Amino acid sequence: MFGSDKEKGSIEMVIAMVLSGTIGYFVVNAEQSYWNVVFLRCVIGALCLAGYVLATKQLTKEILKGPVFITILLGGITLVGNWVLLFASFEHIPFSIAIIAYHLQPLMLVLLSAVLYRQYPSKTILLWLTIAVVGLWLVIGIPYQEIVAVIFAQGSNQAVFGLLLALGAAFLYTITTLMTKKVSQVPSGVVAVIQILFGGLFLLPWVDFNHFPETSASWGNILFLGVVNTGFMYVIMYDAFQRLSTTLIAILSFIYPVVALLVDFMAFDHTVSLLQMMGIVLILVAVSAVKFDWQLGKLVRTPKQKIPSPQKLE
């Protein structure tokens, strides 16, 4: 069905990022605290993943031994830490600025891979990543002056602390991605169920059991988050992590904010400005360029002029 691991992984990553872009819609409509939403998402997702792993007989004793299990567990710690730091950053800086900082994660992934594994990106890749970041900036729609004002607010270090929390969340998510790639021999469903189950246990102290959803609509949103946006999404996303290069994972991650903006527009009637549309175009161009290996030299190549052959002397 798929021509190669890269093709399958790319399709899985695109689907996962599209689903990620819809998470905000279901979180808002669940009408629950962030902690309750994440906890219920972990519990429902873990149950679905456990059923999937058992039905497909992916769990073996070898997976639960030695450094492989430790690596998976460490990835779970960084995954949960990423959620905690990101949600904590919302209390110190505007949501939109936190999202900008958090979505610098693709750049962190490329840079950290270069340091740890000597997977140095080419100048062309760095250029497309830069274009994607500029597109992200335009999509979020925050003026540069406002960001500077938040960071250097007089008499308060709250903004700087919040920004560091968001960047810390992005860094931990980068570690999770690299940890998942490191255990590529383990089925993605097994990796996901261990990490998400651990996440649910870690979040127990912050859960408000007295204010769980009371309406079928709220439970419907929670169930979709758990079954589709966690159970299904993490299987295909982790499988994509194990199949793709860090560069391709990084660039495809920019699909997430584009989908989030479109969902915001369609579901909540938020207008999309011309600059935001330009940002979407820049991101999609950058994604296509890396996916299809566009080379700038070929794109701007000028036709060679033919040198006229010397006339024969009679």
Automatic annotation (TrEMBL):
GO terms under cellular component: plasma membrane
InterPro entries for this protein: AA-Vitamin_Transporters, EamA_dom, EmrE-like
Alphabetical UniProt keywords: Cell membrane, Membrane, Transmembrane, Transmembrane helix
Membrane-topology descriptor: Multi-pass membrane protein
Location of this chain's protein in the cell: Cell membrane
Limits of the EamA domain: 11-140, 161-288
Signal peptide (residue range): none
Spans through the membrane: 9-28, 34-55, 67-87, 93-117, 124-144, 159-179, 186-207, 219-236, 248-268, 274-294
Entry protein name: EamA family transporter
Organism of provenance: Pseudoalteromonas piscicida
